[in-house]
Design brief:
- By secondary structure, the chain is an alpha/beta fold.
- It folds into 2 domains: 164 residues, Lyase, Ornithine Decarboxylase, Chain A, domain 1; 258 residues, Alpha-Beta Barrel (TIM Barrel).
- Helix content is 29%, strand content 24%.
- It has 12 helices and 21 strands.
- Strands 4, 14, 15, 16, 17, 18, 19, 20 and 21 form a 9-stranded mixed beta sheet that branches. It has an 8-stranded parallel beta barrel with strand order 5-6-7-8-9-11-12-13, surrounded by 5 helices. A 3-stranded antiparallel beta sheet has the order 1-2-3.
- The longest helix is centred in the middle third of the chain and has 20 residues.
- It is globular.
- The structure holds ligand LLP.
Length: 454
């Protein structure tokens, strides 16, 4: 069976758009029957620019960046927020990150290239990845990135060789897997012992790798890094993991006489995808993290390290929505009602991959209650191709504009050209103005890399 069997008892919730609360972008409002974001009519925008279309509320993006910065800085002076660009990257968002004074996490040569293209300050870049290629490492080192997060012994040696060749000393972190199982989908748990990432604590592995790093030429070990997972609601995993990290820092100080100056606690704060979700706030997250670091350092008599935190999803997910046009309606009596949209798993793979749940509304009926249970299926040649499975929606008609909320993170960055689908354009909206920051792919783009002409 392609989709899970529909729950026959599921009832429409009769919510209208504004009842969706924390799921909505900051400036979402309903004027008449239309949904507006950033003062822009989503129905008109969809008709003007075509669908599928990713739309971002710029005020929301800036607000969350500023909220993170002040939530941490007000509690912990030596702190920085590093935006995990894997959640959402294009030139416009990197510029915004720069303007808002955040650092940038890149996890591949392409993300670094984007940062360089807009002149993002390289000293504010943190480079990630469990298998950075020698070429990517070379690009990062010659670009002068601030920190490279070392994920293996082999990589440590590679960085040393490349830095030596360029006559520089590269600042590095070591990625540690603290052995904490965060409460989230197994595919996005990254802090447990069995992980492809980093060094775990078993048999003093992490501890001896710290020694290796301290003794390796052309690298300077400035910090330790952890990232326990993503879409985390239960914050207690953070103090657990921070306790492990700070104990390691204390042991390094005691046995090697070296101070670890920086601690990067990764990202992972969950967000509201549905009206029922109750994620912790940015403030609560900052409180838990900074208190844990402070308490653990005090316990061990360590000076407070510079603290970095690396959110992706919680900075951008709720700012983004995806607009689609309804093309086909198909009701299978006693089974489910399919509403086919002009996108699908090519612009949002998360439903197929993680059974993610999204809230949809009809942007041209935004003031009406959601009286039906529908499945928003995509246009791809797979039965599992759905963006929304059995969720409430206003009564749908052909040509309605559907808006799916909270698609700002890991949608565009995980998009594909399956079935030759051009990837959607990206629009930033603010103060009644819309600007296309990434244009829609064309058919020519799809064939641009093909060298045989016939
Ligand atoms: N730092 C590192 C080293 C990471 O690997 C990640 C995410 C983050 C920070 C940001 O985590 P966030 O704050 O966004 O939770 N594709 C999945 C999520 C994968 C997360 C990968 N790493 C999804 O769509 O749910």
């Amino acid at each position: 069976m392609a989709l899970p069997e529909a729950d026959k008892n599921k009832k429409a919730d009769n919510r209208t758009t504004m009842d969706l609360g924390a799921v909505l972008p900051l400036t979402a409002e309903v004027r008449g029957s239309h949904l507006y974001i950033g003062g822009v009519d989503m129905v008109q925008l969809a008709r003007d620019l075509g669908t599928a279309l990713y739309v971002f509320d710029e005020a929301d993006l800036r607000f969350r960046m500023e909220s993170y910065r002040s939530a941490f800085r007000s509690r912990y002076e030596k702190s920085d927020i590093v935006f995990a660009s894997k959640a959402f990257i294009n030139k416009a968002v990197v510029r915004l990150v720069e303007e808002e004074g955040l650092c940038l996490d890149v996890s591949g040569g392409g993300e670094l290239a984007c940062a360089r293209a807009v002149g993002f300050p390289m000293e504010r870049v943190v480079v990630h990845g469990n298998n950075k290629t020698p070429q990517e490492l070379d690009e990062a080192i010659t670009a002068g990135v601030g920190r490279i997060v070392v994920d293996s012994r082999i990589e440590l040696a590679r960085i040393s060789r490349i830095a030596a060749r360029h006559g520089v000393v590269q600042d590095i972190y070591l990625r540690i897997t603290p052995g904490v199982e965060a409460d989230t989908h197994a595919y996005i748990q990254t802090g447990c012992e069995d992980s492809k990432f980093g060094f775990n604590m078993r048999d003093d592995w992490a501890f001896t790798c710290v020694k290796d790093a301290l003794e390796t030429a052309h690298v300077h070990l400035v910090g330790l890094h952890m990232h326990i997972g993503s879409q985390i609601f239960a914050l207690h995993s953070y103090p657990e993991a921070i306790r492990v990290m700070v104990s390691l820092m204390a042991r390094v100080k005691q046995e090697y006489g070296q101070t670890i100056e920086e601690l990067d606690v990764g990202g992972g704060l969950g967000i509201a995808y549905t009206a029922e979700d109750r994620p912790s706030s940015i403030d609560e997250f900052a409180e838990v993290v900074t208190t844990a670091v402070r308490n653990c350092c005090e316990e061990h008599g360590l000076a407070l390290p510079r603290l970095l935190c690396e959110p992706g999803r919680s900075l951008v997910a709720n700012a983004g929505v995806t607009l689609y046009t309804v093309g086909i309606l198909k009701t299978l009596p006693g089974i489910r009602k399919y509403v086919a949209i002009d996108g699908g798993m090519s612009d949002n793979i998360r439903t197929a991959l993680y059974h993610a749940v999204y809230e949809p509304v009809i942007a041209n009926k935004a003031d009406e209650p959601r009286t039906e249970i529908v499945t928003l299926c995509g246009k791809h040649c797979e039965s599992g191709d759905a963006v929304v499975i059995d969720m409430p929606l206003q009564h749908p008609d052909i040509d309605d504009i559907v808006c799916v909320f909270a698609t700002g993170a890991y949608n565009h960055t995980m998009a594909s050209n399956y079935n030759g689908q051009p990837r959607p354009a990206i629009v930033f909206v603010k103060d009644g103005e819309a600007r296309v920051v990434t244009r829609r792919e064309s058919y020519d783009d799809l064939m641009a890399r093909d060298l045989e002409s016939h």
